[in-house]
Amino acid sequence: MKFRVERDVLSEAVAWVVRGLSNRPPVPVLAGVLLTADEEGTLTLSAYDYEVSATVTVEADVAVGGQVLVLGRLLADIARNLPARPVEVSTDGAKVQLTCGSSRFALIQMPVSDYPQLPTQAEASGSMAGDTFTQAVHQVSIAADRGDTLPILTGVRVEIDGEKVTLLATDRYRLAMRELTWNPGSSDASHVCLIPARTLSETAKALGAAASVNVSFGDAQRSDGLVGFEAGQRRTTTRLLDGEYPKVTSIFPSSVDTVAVVDTQALIEAVRRVALVAERNTPVRLRFTDGQLAIEAGTGDDAQGSEAVEASLTGPEVEIAFNPQFLLDGLGVLNAPFARLAFTQPSRPAVLSGQAEIDGESDESYRYVLMPVRFAG
User: How far apart are the first and last CA of the chain?
Assistant: First the structure.
């Protein structure tokens, strides 16, 4: 095998495929990146750990086609630090020689025959705009559980019903739901799956710059437990989580007693400042009165902080407390000038959504439900 490729092209391609590689793979070959050079003028890089696969195809000047397997993270580190010159790669016995300007490296070949077969990408089930995909995943994945107590809650539930897509995640303390439209391959498209939130989030960040992202849910009859994403020459698959997701949409209040609308950025900054005195697991208290929201943290002999911001209030005054980081997480992904907080009573979940104007309509496409925290006094 012998080929030449631009340094930046190689560096970006390797970084893309190794992003999901485990630091402690179950078998040594899974730490590798598979390089396949085609004399038609392409270089394909692939990585796979039985859970997530990533493949990217780039242009290259291929003199001799072939296939080699080398340590992925080592190749990524080398490619990232090479001088801005074309990179020449060739096999030499048991080594892979890499030359860039006066830089020379010899990498050990790993046994290609031991490398598992990459999962095949099913035909696209539909597509959505890259920026919309990234935003929606970011808005929802913040609410997924990061622990291992209940693995099913570490996923994002994706439901497809025709042109409608609903993303849902919860860690039992908050719940995030985003509804959007996509371009399905079939008008009667119907899918429900549970995708690991961390993998979905990384995929959205990596592919979101593309104008359009194709999504493959696979053949229902084949039931291979995979979902695939593709944008341009980048393709990735991930294994789905098994299990029945809890019916958490019942958490959404059926009625609302009080609605407050606050400038989103002003609220974020105020909560951040007041939360500086809130020790671990200590809530911030929000007291909504006509025209004003008072934010407080700390009691008694502890450090204390307070601040007030303007607020538009409809309904009875309310006092409620939240985990400050959970509140900031939701506010940070609203992508709206104004935050709308809807309450029933201080002991019941509150619903956060966005508004374009202080006296306008709420955008219900994204809703963030936050459980209140009990506080003394």
Answer: 73
